[in-house]
Specification:
The complex is a heterodimer of chains A (414) and B (220). Chain A is built from 15 helices and seven strands. By secondary structure, chain A is α+β, with helices and mostly antiparallel strands. Chain A has three domains: 204 residues, no CATH class; 78 residues, no CATH class; 122 residues, Histidine kinase-like ATPase, C-terminal domain (Heat Shock Protein 90). In chain A, helix 3 packs antiparallel against helix 4, helix 3 packs across helix 7 and helix 3 crosses helix 9. Chain B is globular and about 45 Å long. In chain B, 52% of the residues lie in helices and 13% in strands. The chains are: A alpha+beta (414), B alpha/beta (220). At the A-B interface, helix 10, helix 11, helix 12, helix 13 and strand 3 of A face helix 1, helix 4 and helix 6 of B. Chain B: Keywords: DNA-binding, Phosphoprotein, Transcription, Transcription regulation.
């Protein structure tokens, strides 16, 4: 519910709801806020000009636009009286550890600060309207409603030269008029306050599109956190279980030299080696060290070595892409090749990786039976998800009878 | 032999030391990170080096990089690289530096006699590539390759050459006469257009072609 929707409701419910009062409270406090802000600005300007001969005065003047930042946060708070939707600030976080000077400069460089200053100036002018309209309506309706009392005391009410009320009957009619004005006033307050709220939202609140970008960024951060976690697990297994199994195999080798039950030792060694191999494949699947060490070309090559379907690899990269992009591309190829081996019936696959215009292009093609569909779930959906996390796109062409071409593009700044 | 070993896991470092000592080698230095490896080689001038790939400070491929740097600095210094993973691109880099190098999965050390044998061959200027690398290379299809000119039997022989076996050993493995192997090797060297050179050197070149070819992407 916001003030506009409240006005569209049944008039009786609206008039007796809290909305007219909230609107009035909003309008009534506007001039107070405006006067306070103008006073602070006036003081700062005065101090700044006086101190201008000393350099510090310019610093004080530079802070004047920042008062709008404070005003804006008050205004976003007041906005909540009329509009319960979230009202996030459009400012970015000041970098950690920045000094006062750096903080001031950071804010001054933001367009949000200057939008807020524009709002503050407009707001100070419009505050006069906010003061006068409710004042006129309240005084006008109160006088009109109280007309019988005034007339009974011998007063007369003059509406300019247009009408004079000085008889009881006229007075009672005027009361009705006053009530009508009060009713209309409820709508006037709400409309005026609603307009003000819309202005505040337009100039002071971060646009929804920017919120979307924020959501995407946080999704990418989450993916990066998972990636870091995978690396940690890989490292733990490498330093722990893998080394211990290798140590065990060595010790068994030494024991065999000493002539201890050769058959049993051989068997134990074979078991340990099988366990180590399984662990090695698992760890390689979690995060291959060749990707970290040597980059995408060598890692994709290593995938091709392991693929049961022969793979032609064609990777041309002038430099290594950023780590998250590299990692995403690697797992796209890994999953795509796994799909080729599992479902396509292909006899040859081809992986092509290029740096495009601000994107990394990954193409996996096979000469299999085609008919692959993301709706079948599993692999292809996972691939699309991986690409989406980094704002990438996946396109698939897989007519029945083949060939299947999978194309993933991931943006990466060069 | 006087040997320097580098391995960041103390457990494996001790195991390696024990095995080498057992076979009459002298471990002149056992270090746990890449910079110490370089320093130990400079100090002791060993007959051979055995090193891990992933080591401090960065826990990436420092061990391999140090091995390559040592080989560049002291051509012919026998180096055996051990790793939890074998990657063909790492093997190719090592082999670029010529004979007297080896690249094996760490757990091969458990086959103690074979491990010591491999180390001896490397020290004698031979090449030892882990069978796992060779197996993957063989299973991989390659177009436009001089290796396509080889017969299946010749590729088999070349794979065993990459594992560092001598003609006699290859003959025993394939259950044929050594004379037959000599013929295959001659044919392989001719098909790969290798220039005349002392025989060991040509063997290294043949294996190198084999690995480099697999590492060769059009355009890179």
């Amino acid at each position: 519910m916001n003030v506009w929707r409240a006005m569209a409701r049944n008039p009786v419910r609206f008039v007796f709801s809290s909305w007219p009062w909230r609107s009035l409270a909003y309008l009534a406090t506007t001039p107070l806020v405006a006067v306070l802000w103008l006073a602070v600005v006036a003081v700062l300007l005065l101090v700044g000009v006086v101190l201008a001969p000393l350099v510090v005065g310019f610093g004080v003047l530079a802070c004047v636009p920042l008062t709008a930042v404070v005003l804006a946060s008050v205004e976003r708070w007041r906005l909540r009286w009329l509009d319960p939707r979230a009202a996030p600030s459009a400012h970015r976080a000041v970098p950690d550890g920045a000094g006062t000077r750096a903080r001031v400069l950071f804010r001054l460089r933001e367009s949000a600060t200057w939008r807020e200053l524009g709002y503050a100036l407009l707001f100070s002018v419009l505050a006069a309207v906010d003061l006068m309209v409710p004042f006129a309506i309240i005084v006008g309706s109160t006088v009109a409603v109280g007309a019988p009392y005034l007339v009974a005391n011998g007063d007369r009410i003059m509406y300019g030269s247009f009408a004079t009320v000085d008889e009881p009957l006229e007075a009672w009619l005027t009361t009705l008029l006053g009530l009508a004005i009060a009713l209309a006033g409820c709508y006037a307050f709400a409309a005026l306050a609603g307009g003000r709220a819309a202005l505040a939202r337009a100039l002071l609140v971060r646009a929804p599109a920017e919120e979307l970008i924020e959501v995407r960024a946080s999704r990418a951060r989450l993916a990066d956190a998972f990636e870091a976690e995978r690396r940690r697990i890989e490292r733990d297994l490498h330093d722990g279980a893998q080394q211990r199994l290798t140590g065990l195999i060595m010790t068994l080798g030494l024991a065999r030299l000493d002539g201890a039950a050769p058959d049993l030792i051989d068997k134990a060694q074979a078991e340990a080696r099988a366990a180590l191999e399984e662990l090695r494949d698992l760890v390689h699947g979690i995060h291959p060290s060749v990707l970290t060490d040597r980059g995408l070309a060598a890692a994709v090559d290593s995938l091709a070595d392991r693929s049961p379907v022969p793979v032609d690899v064609d990777v041309e990269l002038p430099e290594r892409p950023p780590e998250p992009v590299e990692s995403a591309a690697y797992f796209v190829v890994a999953e795509a090749l796994a799909n080729v081996a599992k479902h396509s019936g292909a006899s040859l696959a081809r992986v092509r990786i290029r740096r495009g215009d601000g994107t990394l292009l990954v193409e996996v093609q096979d000469d299999g039976g085609g008919g692959a569909e993301p709706a079948q779930g599993g692999g292809l959906q996972g691939l699309a998800d991986r690409a989406a996390v980094h704002d990438g796109t996946l396109r698939l062409s897989s007519p029945p009878g083949g060939p299947t071409i999978l194309r993933v593009e991931i943006p990466c700044a060069s | 032999m006087r040997i320097v070993i580098a391995e960041d896991s103390v457990l494996l470092l001790e195991g390696l030391s024990q095995i080498l000592t057992r076979f009459g080698h002298e471990v002149v230095a056992a270090v746990t990170d890449a910079p110490s490896l370089a320093a130990a080689v400079a100090e002791h001038a060993p007959d051979a080096v055995v090193t891990d790939v992933r080591m401090p400070p960065g826990f990436r491929d420092e061990g391999l990089r140090t091995a390559l740097a040592l080989r560049a600095e002291r051509p012919g210094l026998p180096v055996l690289v051990l790793s939890q993973y074998v990657e063909q691109s790492y093997a190719a880099d090592l082999l670029q530096t010529g004979g007297g190098v080896g690249y094996l999965l760490k757990d091969r050390v458990g086959q103690v006699a074979e491990f010591i044998d491999a180390l001896d061959r490397i020290a004698a200027g031979g090449l030892v590539i882990d069978p796992e690398v060779v197996r993957r290379l063989l299973s991989r299809r390659r177009d436009r390759s001089p290796l396509e000119r080889l017969t299946d039997r010749e590729r088999e022989v070349l794979a065993l050459m990459a594992e560092g076996l001598s003609n006699g050993a290859i003959a025993r493995r394939l259950v044929v006469t050594e004379a037959a192997i000599v013929k295959h090797v001659g044919s392989i060297l001719a098909k790969l257009d290798l220039p005349p050179a002392p025989d060991d050197h040509r063997r290294v070149r043949a294996v190198l072609t084999y690995l480099r070819d697999a590492d060769d992407h059009p355009g890179t």
